[in-house]
């Protein structure tokens, strides 16, 4: 009996040694300050009262700093301590949720922050962006617990396009493993110092993968001159019939389910939207190769109908080619079929074949229809509020075909498309009667008129799209970016901003000065307010805007900016007197 007890104790000690070792190592590494701590939210260096989502949060997922993609989060400031009257909303998602290519002002966060501030003038409204390019449901899941700690009144989600080729996606260059379980384990372990030590040790002994991307000039790639789309795609042929395609849907369903369940448990309302893309005017990026001449025949039919021949003349031939296309799986054939049916006035069939062309596109930059199916199912399962942005765009498109009328390229909306995205969230928040009394709701026409984006930003966004389309997958090899000459002083400022000669705040200040010189008072007020919202801790700027709002007759709007000035300088008599005058 005594021997048995001794054996048990010996086995217990032996079993415990590795755990004791790693626990001791973890504590030692923490004491020595090894590794990095990258919380999602950090203090603003310019003010003790504000926090922000850290712009370089992408470093969290890349221990090797040489391999970090050029992605940053365009963060806006929010109060470190949520006020009693606070209305705090977080936005999660990828590049569309972040407002690419225009920036924060065109994003759901930027548009809603302004509109909700006018809707609830007696509350401190904060709509906070945590979206950025190239991320997918893994990153959203990784942020959830930290967002919950900030006590949000709601969370808005727009995601789905990056599930295959985004960071940690099943077909991405930016993933260490193609295993969903391993990726989830990575998210759980990444904060441990011991794990960081293991990662860094591994990096010392394993040469960085230098395999060139298809059609990518290695010298330019190393100089970081390629677009994110050119860098991110590793698996460029994800067939809808493949296991990889199904893995992408499975990871999205699992991750979104966990995200929504966490918010549900925390009793935080979630609005999650369907995603939309360009069906009508974006040909497939890549197709299954075909040996048939079906595409040549369809091109002939299209050209002849376009020249005046009747669609009915080719009905039998088109039907025969359609049967062959269903077996062929070539995305280009379906896209051409869609064009022919649209030309023939058969919009129902055209819409169906445009969707089929996108579904068969091997390069998965656009979300397949299964992503929206998952969004609908998971929203229902976990009590989230569904926002049907795709339907709203469809209703606003000629013949219900989403194309360049709302899209800049394959999936990023133009300004009208972004406004509809934000408006879709706004109208759903209102319909659900969240946050109390909506008696001051802002009309759609007024919100569009007051949208917080200026001409210089529009030009910079336009230039970014030209650059995007000068590289893969729009071209096989990179092309020189040629921009049209700016047509006025606003576009000249936009060009300087795009070229990184000036930063965003300098671009706003130069625009403000230009509008002031030209006595364009509505734009003076808009630009001034945008500056104040970007630097709420700057008392002089916010006090100036408050006075401008008073002069314009916007007493409640002025109050918000006076309050900011008093928060930063509570003993300043001038600021306190101005605020008390408003309150009285």
Explain this structure.
With 584 residues, the protein is mainly alpha-helical. It is built from 24 helices and 8 strands. It has 3 domains: 41-192 and 210-280 and 367-449, 3-Layer(aba) Sandwich (Rossmann fold), CATH 3.40.50; 294-360, no CATH class; 455-583, Tetratricopeptide repeat domain (Serine Threonine Protein Phosphatase 5, Tetratricopeptide repeat, Alpha Horseshoe), CATH 1.25.40. The longest helix has 30 residues, at 2-31. Helix 22 (539-551) packs antiparallel against helix 23.
Layout of helices and strands, plus pairs?
Blueprint lengths: L1 H30 L9 E3 L6 E4 L24 E2 L6 E8 L1 H4 L9 H12 L4 E6 L7 H13 L4 E5 L21 H10 L3 H13 L12 H5 L5 H5 L10 H23 L4 E4 L20 H13 L8 H14 L2 H13 L3 H14 L8 H13 L3 E3 L1 H7 L19 H17 L12 H6 L5 H14 L20 H10 L5 H14 L3 H14 L4 H13 L3 H14 L4 H11 L1
Parallel strand pairs: 4-5, 4-6, 6-7, 7-8
Antiparallel strand pairs: 1-2, 2-3
Helix pairs in contact: 3-16, 4-9, 9-14, 10-12, 12-13, 18-19, 19-20, 20-21, 21-22, 22-23, 23-24
Spatial separation of the terminal alpha carbons: 86 Å
**Helical content (DSSP H or I, runs of 4+):** 40-55%
CATH class of the largest domain: Alpha Beta
* Extended strand count: 8
**Order of adjacent strands in the largest pleated sheet:** 5-4-6-7-8
Q: Rg to the nearest angstrom?
A: 27 Å
Q: So how many helices?
A: 24
- Residue runs with pLDDT of under 50 for 5 or more positions: 207-223
Globally, the shape reads globular
- How does the major sheet shape up? 5 strands, parallel
Quote the beta fraction.
5-15%
What structural class should be given to the helix and strand makeup? mainly alpha
Assign the CATH architecture of the largest domain.
3-Layer(aba) Sandwich
CATH topology of the largest domain: Rossmann fold
Mean model confidence by pLDDT: 89
Task: Determine the oligomeric state from the structure.
Answer: single chain
Q: Total domains, how many?
A: 3
């Amino acid at each position: 009996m005594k021997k048995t007890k001794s054996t048990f104790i010996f086995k217990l000690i032996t079993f415990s040694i590795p755990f004791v070792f790693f626990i001791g190592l973890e504590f030692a590494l923490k004491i020595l300050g090894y590794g990095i701590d990258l919380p999602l939210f950090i203090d603003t260096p310019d003010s003790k009262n504000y926090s922000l989502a850290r712009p370089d949060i992408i470093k969290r997922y890349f221990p090797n700093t040489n391999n970090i993609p050029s992605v940053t989060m365009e963060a806006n400031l929010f109060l470190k301590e949520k006020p009693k009257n606070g209305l705090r909303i977080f936005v999660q998602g990828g590049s569309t949720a972040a407002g690419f290519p225009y920036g924060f002002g065109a994003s759901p966060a930027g548009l809603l922050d302004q509109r909700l501030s006018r809707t609830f003038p007696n509350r401190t409204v904060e709509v906070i962006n945590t979206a950025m390019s190239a991320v997918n449901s893994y990153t959203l899941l990784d942020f959830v617990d930290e967002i919950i700690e900030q006590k949000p009144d709601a969370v808005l989600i727009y995601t789905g396009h990056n599930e295959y080729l985004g960071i940690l996606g099943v077909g991405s260059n930016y993933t260490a493993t193609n295993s969903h379980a391993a990726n989830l384990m990575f998210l759980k372990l990444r904060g441990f110092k011991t794990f960081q030590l293991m990662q860094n040790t591994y990096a010392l002994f394993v040469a960085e993968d230098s395999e060139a991307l298809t059609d990518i000039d290695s010298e330019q790639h190393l100089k970081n001159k390629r677009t994110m789309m050119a860098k991110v795609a590793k698996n460029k042929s994800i067939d809808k019939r493949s296991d990889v395609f199904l893995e992408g849907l499975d990871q999205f369903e699992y991750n979104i389910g966990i995200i929504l369940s966490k918010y549900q448990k925390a009793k935080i309302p979630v609005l999650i939207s369907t995603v939309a893309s360009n069906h009508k005017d974006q040909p497939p990026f890549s197709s299954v190769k075909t040996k048939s001449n079906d595409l040549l025949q369809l091109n002939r039919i299209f050209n002849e109908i376009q020249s005046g021949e009747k669609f009915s003349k080719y009905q039998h031939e088109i039907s025969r080619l359609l049967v062959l296309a269903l077996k062929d799986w070539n995305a280009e054939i379906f896209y051409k079929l869609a064009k022919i049916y649209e030309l023939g006035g058969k919009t129902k069939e055209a819409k169906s074949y445009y969707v089929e062309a996108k579904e068969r596109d091997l390069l998965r930059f656009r979300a397949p229809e299964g992503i929206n199916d998952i969004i609908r199912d998971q929203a229902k399962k976990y009590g989230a509020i569904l926002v049907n942005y795709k339907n709203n765009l469809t209703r606003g498109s000629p013949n219900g075909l989403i194309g360049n009328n709302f899209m800049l390229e394959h999936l990023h909306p133009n300004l009208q498309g972004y406004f509809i995205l934000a408006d879709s969230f706004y109208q759903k928040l209102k319909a659900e009667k969240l946050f109390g009394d909506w008696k001051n709701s802002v009309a759609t026409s007024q919100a569009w008129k007051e949208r917080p984006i200026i001409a210089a930003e529009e030009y910079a966004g336009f230039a970014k799209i030209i650059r995007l389309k000068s590289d893969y997958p729009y071209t096989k090899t990179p092309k020189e970016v040629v921009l049209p000459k700016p047509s006025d002083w606003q576009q000249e400022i936009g060009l300087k901003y795009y070229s990184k000669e000036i930063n965003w705040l300098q671009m706003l200040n130069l625009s403000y000065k230009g509008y002031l010189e030209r006595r364009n008072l509505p734009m003076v007020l808009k630009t001034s307010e945008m500056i104040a919202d970007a630097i709420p801790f700057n008392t002089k700027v916010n006090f100036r805007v408050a006075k401008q709002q008073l002069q314009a007759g916007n007493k409640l709007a002025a109050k918000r900016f006076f309050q900011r000035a008093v928060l930063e300088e509570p003993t300043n008599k001038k600021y306190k007197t101005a605020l008390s005058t408003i309150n009285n």
